[in-house]
């Protein structure tokens, strides 16, 4: 056999060395390429919001906003006609679109959803890179450099992942329930402001009639005093009554303007957005009836168990339970981690495997477990506190509604009696048996009774709205209304817009 030449041997060694070097570079570059391939570009930032742009948008809100019309069409199947008066349902829908508290609740729900996404995702690995130089070894080895790379992986137990996910899911459910409860709160505020504006307009109308009657009586009394039939004191008292009526009319006009502002505020709008807007108050022209005792008992129990804030408090309890399980699962020190990797040392490729195991020597998470138990007790106490507050609201609303209904019945009886007296005085005046003064005084008595009845009906509607808001349920029996003898006839209205509970809420 012929020996190989030195040139051929040197070429073979060079080729092997080149192959080993290429293999080492490939071994180190492959994990790095895999990590870089998993990187994603950051999403675009939302448009910047400044106080100036936000204030400008707030001041230019309008019921004619095309986006509001699309939102109403999503809920009801058709947009609101421009010339059609706005009912309580229409105003409530606009409030659900514009009111800032709902935007805050929706943002909280989105934040809870993001927390759930964080809990469900797996932790990212970490890249560990090392470089060493050995001068003494460089004389004997092909290269004095030692290059190493490892990938760190955090090993989470299934119990820990389940606890974190359960906690985040409970947070999502709680945020969604609080959003639903915020919608009830906004609708209740719109309902109260709607009733207050109707009452303010009715009071101003009645006060105008009182002022006209007082002025007429003042003129008749002054004429009788000049003729010597009545005393100057009677004329002065009549003049004072007319002046008081005029001042009260001014106060009622101011109260009507304040009621407009309150309604706009309940809807999340500037008051300019309601200028020129026709509002339909026909739903308040008939009186509601109190649900029977059996139905109220059922509704009360259902509210104590299924109101949105009660269920949200229960979700917070579930979240605290999941947090306690998580703290107990971490009593062994937390999850370990492993770090598989590769190293090229003095021209030799090596595979490595490192591990990190927490050692619970000084504590076993006793403090975290105690804090989790305390938070669980706190959440359970808050659940009971929420139910107690709900019960108080329901009972207060029931009592106020019953008292208002009693006052309405008494006022209707007085209105009927005073109207009969007025008709008798008018008939006597028509026959020439009485002058116009007794009829004017009878008219004033009737108007005073109608003002009291209006206040009683206002209290009744507001108490009914407060009761339905406390129950967070439509009171079905209250929809069967009875006509009022002291109000113009109207179609049978729904109480506090129970049709709102039938709307399927959809976002744009």
From TrEMBL:
Q: Does the keyword Lipoprotein apply?
A: no
Which InterPro entries does the entry mention? MdtP/NodT-like (IPR010131), OMP_efflux (IPR003423)
Q: Which UniProt keywords apply?
A: Coiled coil
UniProt GO MF annotations:
efflux transmembrane transporter activity
List the residue ranges forming a coiled coil, or say none.
Answer: 394-421
Domain of life assignment: Bacteria
* Similarity comment: Belongs to the outer membrane factor (OMF) (TC 1.B.17) family.
Q: What is this protein called?
A: Outer membrane efflux protein
Q: Which organism is it from?
A: Thiomonas intermedia (strain K12)
Traced from the root, the source organism's taxonomic lineage reads: Bacteria, Pseudomonadati, Pseudomonadota, Betaproteobacteria, Burkholderiales
